[in-house]
Amino acid sequence: MCADYSSVFVIISRIIQLMDVTQCWMRPATAADAAAVAGFAEMTFRDTYAAHNTAEDMELYCSQAYAPEVLAAEIHQDDVLYLLALVNDHIVGLLKLQWSQPPMPMPFDNPLQISRIYVHPEAKGKGIGRILMAAAKAHAAEHGHDYLWLGVWQQNEAAIAFYKKMGFAIIGTDTFVLGKDPQLDWLMGLPMPKH
After folding, report:
1. What's the total number of domains in the chain?
2. Residue 176: how many CB atoms within 10 A of its CB?
3. How far apart are CA 68 and CA 63, in angstroms?
4. Are 135 and 120 in contact (CB under 8 A)?
């Protein structure tokens, strides 16, 4: 994990424990946020998945997916949008939207992928996930996307339950490679209302 981010983990945890969800605000990430976004993303990913994977696979995946230069490049991509949920200028949630087709044929013209939706471990259950999902749905509606989709590890029961609660349904499977370990994901989708 990035040392500069982990050093403030305890402080952020205390802020979150006192947090009222109404104090949360969102903004797009900028290139200046790349290191903080990388540290936050890696920390939340490790918190969720480290106990279920080998240290070698976690290191390989995290070093490739969460390097600050990788995140900086993604933030600049025209087909990617990172939104940050913040409390007292500390990241408590992260949403990555990507304009991409699902890995299976779908009868939709303009799908939008929720590529990442991460919530700080101490902020889970405080409504941050709902705020991030509402932002994804609002962005999709505002930009004429007719379908939201995502992939989720088949063993991540809490995330699957959350997505179902948000209206998503399982539509298929896909393989996600974590390090060198191919794992099965559920693909979940949500048609957007027509306006």
Report:
1. 1
2. 14
3. 9
4. no
The residue segments making up the domain with residue 85 are 3-191
pLDDT in tens, 36-70: 999 999 999 999 999 999 999 999 999 999 999 99
169-178, strands of its sheet edge to edge: 25-28, 80-87, 90-98, 111-119, 147-153, 181-191, 169-178
Q: Which residues have a Cβ under 8 Å from the Cβ of 37 and sit 6 or more positions away?
A: 29, 71, 75, 82, 84, 91, 94
The answer to whether residue 110 scores a pLDDT higher than 60 is yes
Question: 88 pLDDT band (50/70/90 cuts)?
Answer: confident
* CATH number, domain containing residue 24: 3.40.630.30
The model's pTM is 0.88
DSSP state of 145: -
70/154 Cα distance (integer angstroms): 26
Crossing angle of helices 34-49 and 68-76, in 10° steps, is: 110
